Amino acid sequence: MKKIISFVFVLFAAFALTACGGGEDVKTIAVIMPSADHGFLGESINHAEAATSTLATAAGYEYTFLISDDVVQQSNQIDQVVADGVDVVVLWPHNGDELKSAAQTIVDAGIPLIVYDRLISDFNETAELLGDNVTIGEETGTYFNTYFASDLLAGKVQILEFKGDNSSVPTQRHDGFFSTADANFEVVQDWSTGWSKDTAQTQMETFLSGEQATVESIRAIFTHDAEVAAGVLAAIEGYDGAYTLNIELVSAVSASKELLSLFDHYEALGIDQVAFSFSPAMVVDAIQLGIDVLNGDTVSGQHLVATEMVDNTNFEAFMTGPVYTLRYSLED
């Protein structure tokens, strides 16, 4: 069963990797996720680490918090927490399908498993929690339809697409977009960016050095991430070639401070933006599900975190709202 939820947790900063002991009968939650020191994932780690400490300690549980650089290291961490006999695992896979065998050892050991963000296909986890990626794609497509309504009546509208990686997240966003986007949208080229601003900027700069008619035909850019959008926008702003750029709209996911602070700047340059909220703080909801399991509550199904549309008309109001405020609460 799918459940649409919104997150309103208030976090208190508390940073430690493993809780102090509390006796043999004390239950333990293990949180396992990819590593990063910046960007969306870096923010997510900060929220996850703080929430794991705060929520587990408040409930009287022990905890283990682990990050990893790749699938192999993450698989080894799974083996370790299974051997340690933890009581629940919250897992953010590097790539769901590549971690499937390792994740199965958690299930086979009878340990409840909460999967976060990147799905494991055809898998029997206890529950999964993720952003509503399909809806994000659908609403982006609908927004594009409205924005280019008159142009679409006249014919084709050429766009570019900048994806994240090969996980379930970009697949859902891509499929959602093209389930609602008008058939007259034509993707001239697409890229996988690895969620990297620098990679996206380089890819866009290379594209802008291509054939003139193709470059000048592009009217909009569909990106899957705020950092990716920032890289694309930087490439557009920095372009000093002879072509006339006709890009009017750039979309993003995760309405970050970096991106929103430049909405007015790029609007003055003739580029509108739309972003759909996807906060790093929503990882807290997944950890709360793990705590709920330890509390004896029934936890199951797919939990989807609702998204909000943010564009040039409402971004200032969004930046005073609860989703944005919680996202940056750890900076205070």
Question: Can you describe this structure?
Answer:
The chain has 332 residues and is α/β, with parallel strands linked by helices. The chain has helices spanning 39-59, 71-84, 100-108, 133-147, 149-154, 168-180, 197-208, 212-217, 226-238, 257-260, 263-268, 283-294, 315-318, 322-327, and strands at residues 2-5, 28-34, 62-68, 88-91, 113-116, 127-131, 157-163, 185-192, 218-223, 249-253, 272-276, 301-305, 309-311. The strands form 2 sheets. The protein has a 7-stranded parallel beta sheet with strand order 1-12-6-5-4-2-3, with helices on both faces. α1 packs parallel to α12 (283-294), α2 runs parallel beside α3 (100-108) and α4 (133-147) packs parallel to α6. The longest helix has 21 residues, at 39-59. Mean pLDDT is 92; it is low at 1-23.
Overview in brief:
The chain is α/β, with parallel strands linked by helices and 332 residues long.
Features:
single chain; 332 residues; alpha/beta; Rossmann fold; 2 domains; 7-stranded parallel beta sheet; 6-stranded mixed beta sheet; 13 strands; elongated; disordered N terminus
